[in-house]
Amino acid sequence: MKKKILIMGIETSCDETAVSIIEDNGRKPPKILANIISSQVEVHKKFGGVVPELAARSHLEKIEMITKKALKISKIKLKDLDAISATAGPGLIVCLSVGFNFAKALCIALKKPLIAVNHLEGHALSPMFEKNLDYPYLLLLISGGHTQFLIVKGLGKYKRIGTTIDDALGEAFDKTAKMLGFGFPGGPKIEKYSKKGNPNKFNLPKPIINKGGCNLSFAGLKTAVLRSKILLKTKKDKYDLAASFQATVLKIIYKKTKIAIRDFRKVAKSKSLVVAGGVAANKEIRKIINKLCNEENFNPFFPAEKLCSDNAAMIAMAGLKKFKKKKFDKLNFSIRPRWPLDENAKFLKGSGVKL
Ligand code: KG4
Ligand code: ZN
Description:
- The protein has about 350 residues and is of the alpha/beta class.
- It has helices spanning about 40-45, 50-75, 95-110, 120-125, 170-180, 185-195, 220-230, 235-265, 285-295, 315-325; strands at about 5-10, 15-25, 30-40, 85-90, 115-120, 135-140, 145-155, 155-165, 270-275, 300.
- A hairpin with a 4-residue loop joins strand 1 (about 5-10) and strand 2.
- It is globular, with a radius of gyration of 20 Å.
- Bound molecules: 5'-O-[(R)-(carboxyoxy)(hydroxy)phosphoryl]adenosine (KG4) and zinc ion.
C-alpha cells in the first residue's frame, strides 16, 4: 500500500450537503484538506424542521458543485483518491439516496473502491482528528436523532448500554426552542439565551433520573416546558425558561453519564469517554462532562466544535478506518435508513417500555 491515503467523504443523510477530502500519511491524526458544508437552514427555517423532499432536492442541486469545490480547495484530482466513502444510513431515505448514489456513480466511473459509512460511526470517530484513540472507549452520542451510551469495542463493534426511551436530546433542544419562539435549529439558540436567564427559576422534571440505569428520557421535560409557557410574560421569562431547561439537561447528563461510567468500568479498563454529535458543541455540556470526568478520574474527548454537527470529514474518517482494513462495499450496497450501531440492542421506545 502506498504511504499517503486520500479519502473522499460524502454526507447527505439529513439537511447538510457535505463533501470532504482527508489525507493520511502515517502522521497522526489525519489531515482535513477540505471540509465543505452547505447548510439548508434557510430552506427549512419557515417549517420549523427538516422537510425531506425539499432537503433531497437541495442535495441534488448542490452535490456536484460542492464536490468540485472540495477538489479545488484540496488541490486533489478525482483520480488521486484512494476510495470514496459516503453515508449509507441512518437518515432520510430520499436524502441518503442522493449522496450514496452519487458516490456509487463516481466509483463506477473512476474504478475506485466504495465504502458505505454509518453516519453514527462517523460521529463516534470524529474526535480522532484530534487524537487517535485506543479501543475500547465509552461514547455518549448526543445528536438530533440519537441519544445513546455505547461501548466502542472497535471499528464496527458497538454495544449499546443506554438509550433515550423517547426524544433525542437535540430534538428536545429544538422543540424547546420552537416553543419559546427562538427558531430553528434550536440547540445553539437555547445555549445563547440561557446565558441571559436564571437557571433556577423553573423547577422542571428529570424523567427516569433514579431508575433505568443509564437510559434517558426527555419527553416529560419537553411537556413541562410547554406547560410552563403560560407563565411567560416577558422576554426575561423566556430566557429563564431556556436557562432552566438547559440546567435540567445538565443535571440529567451528569447523573446518567456517571452511571454509564460505572457500568463501563465493570467490563473495561479504559478511562476514555468520547462525547460526540451536534449537541456536543454545547459548552455547558462540555463543562459538566469535564467536571464529572475529573471526579471519576476519566479522560474526556470531544471533536473540534465544527466537527460536532453533521459534516463529511467524519464520514471520510470512518471511510479511512475501513479502507485500512480493506472493508469495501459492493456497488449494489443498499442504503439503510435504519442502521443501529449495535444491531443486537433491544428496541426501547414508547410507552410500556420496561427498563
Ligand atoms: O449531529 P447533528 O448535526 O445531526 C444529527 O445527526 O442529528 O445534530 C444536530 C442537533 C440539533 O438538534 C441541534 O439543535 C443540536 O444538535 N445542537 C445543539 C447545539 N448545537 C447543535 N444542541 C445544544 N447546544 C448546541 N450548542
Ligand atoms: Zn449527525
